[in-house]
Task: structure prediction
Amino acid sequence: MSGLRAFEATARHLSFTQAATELNLTQGAVSHQIKNLENILRLKLFVRDGNAIRLTEAGQEYLASARAALTEVLVATDRAIDRQRGDVLTIACLGSFAIKALIPNLYDFMRRNPCIGLRTRTLVPRIEMDPQDYDVSIQYGSEGDWPGMVAHKIGGEELFPVCSPKIMTAGKGLVTPKDLTRQTIIRTASPLILRDDWPRWLEKAGAPGLKFSAEITCDLLYPSYQAAIEGLGVAMGRSAVVRGDIASGRLVEPFAVRLPSSLGYYVVTGIERAKLAKVQLFYEWATDRLANAVRMPPPDEAKMHSRPSRP
Result:
């Protein structure tokens, strides 16, 4: 294992010196461990290229297996430690929801449960994470998407356009959905992961097939919303994720048209882990405080109608 760690660190940095610093060893010790590994494998893993080093072809092939083995051992170690500790809660969560909703409210859970330590892990849409790697997760989908698991819905979700306040004050602003023809639209879509919600919202708003001035496409929600905050265009918001940015004034909702979504966010855990006290405490908190924190109030139509109309 020492040889594998030395090899992986050296391959990542392509430097014995930097690998030694990371592992808190001497450069000679790192070189010695890699030499022992090469002797065991009967393969040359590195060659010198002037003052630098590079992986051999065999080294490149071995690196993928070495990283997989190290990761598996680290995960197994975490599992073994966690099983003996009832005071650490591992929460797996989708990245955008974690950044925009979970983490901004997590201090309240910590305040209520000071004896529980927290560990967070990021879920990637459509890529399964072993349920043994977390105690509880927050996932996006519909009831029945997690057979053999315990799932409780945090709340429903609505879809609607959001943009920076400066877009509302620049030029003629946005008064009706048809005004979007003058704007850059930010789409959030990627194959097999995210569906573009703009066509369904436009149909709901009575403007199907509307053409836009320009388009930006992002493969994840968070960069789409950040692009909207920076004033690059108008994004399609999900209520649970954009609520905080609207409350703070970083984003505004230009129209009073919302599309109810058939999907939502769920607290999901394994049947056995659902019995753990720390998981039950998180479930109670999530279905109370977190659910209220992400619930959107109705659109403020009076405020929208008070904006100056176009000449």
